[in-house]
Fold this protein.
Amino acid sequence: MQRALDEVSEGPPVPTVSSESWLLYDDTFDFEIASHRATAPASIASTTKMMTALLVVDHAEMDEVVTISRRAEATGHKQIYLRAGEEWTVGELLEAVMVVSANDAAVALAEHVGGDVAGFVELMNDEAAALGLTGTSFANPHGLEARGHHGSAADLLALARTVMSRPELARLAAQPTGEMISQDGRVVDGESTNELLDIVDGAFGVKTGWTTRAGDVIVAGAERDGRRLYAVVLGSRDANRDATALLEHGFAVFTPAERRLVPLMEDPDDAEVLRSSLPAATLARLAHLRGLAKREEAPWE
């Protein structure tokens, strides 16, 4: 019976994706569903900002006031157009970093927490070492290309799980829009760079990125019926499509618990116990997976 379960436990075949390295992980049952070159070094673009945000919530209060420097103002690419001399709270700048992926806000926060960007980068690398991110090295707080700035799909997964354990960051990662207000009342609106929040059922974050060298990258998460998955996609031509395909595949496969439960559906007495003790959504999924196994003509004895 176990051999037959193993034969169909992967469900549909793993989808073909364009990314150079990727990882699909079941956070609920703590196992890797599938991966490709998950520990290979790669450019990680703005997924870098997960580490920036983590250090900010761990080292600063949300109501602390930050005075914007000329260096922060001059930071280009994705930005909220901060102005030197303006004052913003840490919380407003953190929203700009996590929701709209603002590079200028990342620099302003780095200077506030680390004293200067170099000091903050040192904190980033110290935290990476503490988290066991052995394939990761940071050179800046925003993810623009720089010598010695890289990571891996496996490391980004570990970082994302840590980030999502902080309620403030989990809330921001799931926001589809942001509204940031400076101390003098200037309002900046922006949409989340994570389009999967509107595409994938149950999506909850966490961070996107893009540079010419890195390609399209994303760390994506979704939860359905109590089952929580992460997909990390690096070096993709279309990270949204790749991550969506991987997450949908993940929700279709057997979990370790389901491998044990599905065969019990074949025995009337066991099935009755399951029906009296499991939620309706779980029973529906078990019935679906049982049908999948039967279509594969897998013997259950």
